[in-house]
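Q: Convert this sequence to structure tokens.
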Amino acid sequence: MSTKNIRDWFRNRKNLTGIFAIQTASVPKQIYWLLDEKNKLNLSTLLPRDISITEWHSLYRKHNYLEKVLFDGVFPQFYKDLKNSELLLIFKAFPFWYNNSTNKERKQLEEAINTQEIKEAEYYISNFFNYLTIQALNCVEEKTSSEESYIANMDFETKQVVHFFLRIWLPCYFIHGEYPTTLFYKARNGDYNSIKKLALIDKTIIHNPRIAEFIVNLYENGKYHSYNSFLNSLKNKSPKPKMRQIKNRLSALIKYFSSGLEDFSAPEIAKLFDSIEKDRTSNPADPDLPDSPESFTKAIYRESNKIKAPRKN
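A:
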């Protein structure tokens, strides 16, 4: 596949933010496929093997821990052939190191990434995401032996995090536009809409004592419509993901985590998606983005406001 248009877009960008933007904009199809595949396999009703309900639900409260395991453990394991490369710092740079670093430290990292590493980096995240997803689904379906499965050979805690990330974090963020930690907090405190949203993604929440008590109270207080609507959420699968929604939220991530070092405008981000589309299909523009620059700007602004540390519970 040609990368001419992507390279043209990358020209004159800062290395760190440019690579991050390209990698982030490269994964919408993998995210769409994963969310759709999760529905087909009905994973919302099943726990990963050897994980208790209590352990599983505890992950809803560990937003920072989940990201730390992914960025400090999972990515470097997969890219072990690059263990001596400065490129690996990128996988730790967002959002932890980046948001807490000085301008001098950011510039030093910029200077450390050479041209060859930029060429190697263009689709690393995309390839990693695709591989990790297939391995996780194979592991769930028991199609892959433990010797062959990347997921199966992880330590217990890392395996928990990967399953939670693929099954819960991604659907919560890309379908409902909220972190699992935030949804779980609101659900446990009686927010009915949050309970229904979570029930579409993870049927095991009915085993949480506070959520179960709230649902029982609906019935006992004669709120039969709400009670039956919740039961339907338990029966139904997650909504089908929308590609425009996925790309809007990825665009917000690009803008939010690049701010302070490089302020990408909505037209610049749209041009990146158009460049990827041209290289992959020869189509002149990405068909999933909003029709007008104004609409895309508003969508990015709206989604960017949701990206902040989730409320702890």
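Residues 28 and 40 are 18 Å apart (CA to CA).
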